[in-house]
Specification:
alpha/beta, nine-stranded parallel sheet, 463 residues
Length: 463
């Protein structure tokens, strides 16, 4: 059975349909989109602005529990940065159980849906028991993430992480033993997880190399070859160039800056997501943009960690694809992430509308451009099958409430500017994933149970 929705204002790649009609099949796919009402067919009317759901291209779900718990300094850590924060994160990792892992993931996945994200790329590296011994089922922790995504209804691109070293030429620390796999065992895990798709249709499985600091060139090549043998279309993610410290360590150890090394030795293409990519030189910007790789920007996490500014005007101007992730989940708000990305550069460059450049006589709106670019980049990085309200795409639909104060009085031309750059209230009223409503009237049916499980998990992690 199919359903036809009449959406008051429907986002399309080249503008809006007002109204637009979307036919969704029983399989959760979009069958047709038109501006003309189908004759003789019943329709369900949806008031407001209908936009595609974004893919969140970078998440460490468990780190949601750390938000608000590291905002202090002491005499011993007066200079606070990513590396001192990491010590606090490792203390929590030592206490993570499968149950708390799932509980934290379910809460942050719920939050993503509430802010209009319909899929997430989960960069998953807590695989083992404390000390590094494997669980009786080596996929235990991965299955907890799958369960959290299924419970909430969020699409999941699961990216098990290959992590082997504590730095170039350095052994892992004790806590990091929970992350480590030999390449053969790592590929077995990916193969096992690929088998889960029969029961979880919104699950995709890709490959993640933690970084060039944590994986040797030979290990990286072996893992990539193994992934290619299983699935040549699988998404490939890696942390790169988040800090100047990382850039210098890789240059000293491998003879090139991280992205340049990947360009020269791996051959980047549109399957790749370069997470953070904060510190790139001009050659890396040009090469990465031309390769089709997605720059995976995590603006609020990068700001909170004091990492630095992504070269947004330069990368976007070179035609580079980019999207947004929420990484450590200091926020899961689509608008907040995109706002700090744009407005952070405005502060740095001391001018307005940094990303938008004039095109002939037409107005170019920053909110629309930010949203549409992040939408396309997120879909490329996740491979979830959404990313647009169009025939043949997965039916992921987010309804924005025109009565929310941030959108009051706005029409299609300015609604995305208002949402992304114009206020702090969340206008997301309803969310559909793969043809199924998972948020209606701002409520998720499992919300109270998810909150209760998270509260209990926090007590075990920090009590």
């Amino acid at each position: 059975m199919t359903t036809i929705y009449e959406v008051e204002h429907l986002h399309q790649p080249e503008g809006w349909l007002s109204p637009g009609y979307v036919e969704v099949g029983a399989d959760g796919m979009i069958l047709s989109v038109t501006g003309a009402r189908p004759q003789g067919r019943a329709v369900e009317r949806l008031r407001g602005f209908g936009v595609p759901g974004l893919s969140n291209l970078h998440s460490h779900a468990f780190q949601r529990a750390l938000a608000g718990r590291t905002e202090f300094v002491t005499a011993a850590r007066a200079e606070d940065n990513l590396w001192t924060w990491r010590k606090e994160m490792y203390r929590m990792v030592d206490r993570l159980t499968p149950e708390s892992y799932e509980a934290v993931a379910a809460l942050v996945y719920l939050e993503m849906l509430q802010f209009g994200m319909t899929a997430v790329c989960e960069f998953h590296y807590v695989h083992h028991l404390p000390g590094g011994r494997a669980h009786a089922d080596p996929a235990e922790m991965s299955d907890r993430l799958i369960a959290a995504a299924s419970r909430t209804g969020l699409g999941l691109t699961l990216l098990p992480v290959l992590y082997a070293h504590g730095g170039i030429g350095k052994p892992v620390e004790e806590t990091q033993r929970r992350f480590v796999h030999p390449v053969d065992d790592y590929l077995k895990l990916i193969d096992t997880l690929r088998g889960r798709r029969a029961d979880h249709p919104n699950l995709r499985v890709g490959l993640a190399l933690h970084s060039l600091r944590a994986v040797t060139p030979d290990e990286a090549r072996a893992a990539l070859a193994g992934m290619d043998a299983m699935d040549k279309a699988a998404r490939l993610h890696i942390h790169v160039s988040e800090t100047t410290h990382e850039v210098e360590e890789v240059r000293a150890g491998l003879g090139a800056r991280p992205v340049q090394w990947l360009l020269d030795n791996v051959g980047l293409d549109d399957r790749w997501c370069l997470v953070h990519a904060t510190h790139l030189d001009a050659s890396e910007i040009a090469g990465a943009a031309a390769s089709g790789a997605v720059a995976g920007i995590c603006p609020l996490t990068e700001a909170t960690m004091g990492d630095g500014f992504f070269a947004l005007p330069e990368y976007h101007g070179a035609g580079g694809a980019w999207g947004i992730g929420t990484d450590s989940h200091y926020s899961t708000s689509t608008a907040e992430e995109l706002r700090i990305l744009e407005c952070g550069k405005r502060l740095e460059l001391r001018r307005r509308n940094v990303i938008a450049r004039p095109e002939g006589g037409a107005e170019v709106h920053s909110g629309r451009l930010l949203f549409d670019t992040a939408l396309a980049g997120g879909e490329r990085a996740s491979g979830q099958g959404g990313g647009a309200i169009a025939a043949g795409r997965r039916a992921d639909l987010v309804m924005l409430d025109p009565d929310c104060q941030v959108l009051l009085g706005h029409g299609p031309d300015t609604v995305l500017d208002a949402w992304i750059l114009g206020g702090t209230q969340n206008p997301v009223r309803a969310v559909m994933v793969a043809g199924r409503w998972v948020i209606r009237d701002r409520r998720h049916p499992g919300e109270e149970a998810i909150r209760a499980a998270y509260r209990a998990a926090a007590a075990t992690l920090f009590g």
